[in-house]
Structures are given as structure tokens and as C-alpha cells.
Amino acid sequence: MSDSKLNAQRGRMRLLLVLLYLAIAIMIGRAAVTQNAPAWSMESYTRGELQLPFQGRYLMVWVMRWASASPLMGKLAGMLRNSTNGPLELAIQGVDSLCMIALGWVVLKLRKEFQPRPMFDWLAPVLMLWVVAFTYVVRYEQRIFLPYDFLSILFFNLGLLAVLQWRMWSFFLIMLIGSYNRETLLFLIPIWGVLYWRTEQRVKALAIMAAGLAIWGAVRFHVHLLTHKAPASAGLYINWGWNLASLYLPHHWAQVLSVGGYLVIPMWLRRDLIKDRKFALLWLGCVPFLLADLVFGVWDETRIFGELSLLIAVTAACQFEQMLSERTAENDLPVLAGEKSEG
């Protein structure tokens, strides 16, 4: 086959994969809403009357207020009435689908930040789709959706990419916008320190951390002003009873093990396949995030780990490709030995 025909065939295959990705991304974005129930009244959230801290995840309030007042969204919701329940849910489906599409680009960029070099460009995006689907769609417990979930994944992973690529101004912009969506962007800040502590950029990293913390604090203070009439939060609650039950009652196990699309245990068992030191540092930087989830979260509500979906997918992809590379090298050794002996 000539080079031109081969390139044309690869181009068609690449286009097909992109179209399939778009279809799956839209399906997951919509199914996360249609296959689950709202965690609370979306109308109350839109009016600013929901209890804190949920009302404090404010970014989607502006989107949903626009959707509720938009004749176009009302008309579209009527046309799609078999798969959506009004313009508010349609707005969430649209945002979730757009986030999934954007995450395809983000996961490709994240994968290129680590060694070994990608053998299969499609592997990390496919694993990301798998992880997100099992986190937000394929569930039998805690079958709820929240309007800000997919934006949380997008902002957190854009922030990770900015940290890895030392894009300071992008990081500040992400902190400025994303902190209106959810307070978990705070956990990006220790990642700067862990990644760059033993480098010549340590002082600059500390300055960026301080500036990021100031941006986060200013945004959260503004959100406090916006939501000062919302019912007060019941405070942080440690769900030890429920979480321990999810460990010793077998009917919870399949749901709890679905964290990270069932990839977490295999990833841990084959952590020896990770050769890139940045992985160890990045996961170490995520320890505060993980501890907060484990202490204050509900473990069978596996969405609490959702922001780490792309990092899990990239880690698993690197492990698989490293294993494949090592096995290929082992299979080549006898051949090389035979060639030398003949020589």
C-alpha cells in the first residue's frame, strides 16, 4: 500500500475515532442525568434557596437561571421530553456533554506529560470514558446527579495540566472561574508544592501557591455574599457508621469497588510499572484530596473521587503500555541473541 493511501486510511480511522468519542461523550453526559435522580430540588438551587454547602457551588446557578428563562431551552426541552425533564435538566445534560468532549482533549494532553510515550493515543481517552461512566452513570447505590459534577472534573484536570506545564496565568484563571463551581480546587495548591519543592522553581511555586490560595479565598468569600440568605450548613459530618457498613456488608462491595472504574486495585498492585517520578509526586500531592474524601465523604458515593478520573485513566494507560513495552522487549531478546550467535 502506498504512503498516500496509508495516510488516507489513517485519517479516516482518526476521524471515525473522533466521531465515536463525541457520540460516547454526549451519551455519558446525558445519561448521567437521565439514569439518576436529582440529589435535591433543582428549582431551589436555581433560586438560591438550597442548604449550604450545596448552594455554595454557585457557577451552575447562573447557567440554570438562563436556561429557565430561555424560550429556546424551553422549546428544546419540549422536543426532547422523552429524555429530559424540563430546561433545567437539559441545561445540565448540555454542560455535562460539553465537559466530556473537552475532557477528551485534556486527557490526551495529560497523557503526554508522562513516560513512557503513548503507544496508543486512544487508550487514555477510552479508559477515561470507562472510569467516568462507572463513576456517574453505571450505579445501583447513591444514584443521584449534581449539576456541578462534570464541571468539577473539567476544572480540576485543567488545573492539573496547568501545574504540570507550569502555566501560571492559566492556573490563576482556572482558580478564578472554577472556584465558583466547587471548593475542591483548593486541593490543586499542594500539588504545586509537592511537584516543585526540590527544584530551582521552589520559591516561584510557593508564590503561585499563595496567589492561588488568595484567589480561592476571594472567590469563596464572594460566594458567601451571594448565598448569605441560603439555609445554613449542618457542618462537616464524618460518616463512619455508613462507611464501615459499606465495608462489612457484602451488598455494598460491588459499588465501593467501582471507584475509578474498578482500576484502583490493579493500579496499586502493579505500581512497579510506574517509572516516571512525576506520577509518584502527583499522587502524593493528591493525598490531601484523598484524605478529605475518605474522612468526610460517603464511600459508596464514588463520585467523591470523580475529579481524579483522568489521573486514574492516565496512570492505568501508562502502566499497560509499560507492561506491553517490557514484554515486547523480553520477546525480542531471544531473537537478538540468535542474531548475535549467527554473526
Descriptive report:
The protein is mainly alpha-helical. The protein has one domain (3-326). It has 16 helices and two strands. The chain has helices spanning 3-34, 42-47, 59-69, 71-79, 87-111, 123-136, 149-164, 168-181, 189-196, 202-226, 240-248, 253-256, 264-269, 277-285, 287-296, 309-342; strands at 37-38, 144-145. A two-stranded parallel sheet has the order 1-2. The protein is globular. The two termini are 33 Å apart. The model has no long low-confidence stretch (mean pLDDT 91).
Q: Into which percentage range does the β-strand content fall? A: under 5%
Mean pLDDT: 91
Order of helices and strands: HEHHHHHEHHHHHHHHHH
* Unreliable segments of 5+ consecutive residues: none
Q: Biggest β-sheet, characterized?
A: 2 strands, parallel
Radius of gyration over all CA atoms, rounded: 22 Å
Structurally, the number of domains stands at 1
| Measured distance between first and last alpha carbons | 33 Å
Structural class: mainly alpha
Shape: globular
Q: Order of strands side by side in the largest beta sheet?
A: 1-2
Number of strands: 2
Count of separate DSSP helical elements: 16
Helical fraction? 55-70%
Relevant terms:
343 residues; mainly alpha; two-stranded parallel ribbon; globular
Offer a quick outline of the entry.
The chain is mainly α. It has one domain (3-326).
List the SSEs and their pairings.
Blueprint: H1 3-34, E1 37-38, H2 42-47, H3 59-69, H4 71-79, H5 87-111, H6 123-136, E2 144-145, H7 149-164, H8 168-181, H9 189-196, H10 202-226, H11 240-248, H12 253-256, H13 264-269, H14 277-285, H15 287-296, H16 309-342
Parallel strand pairs: 1-2
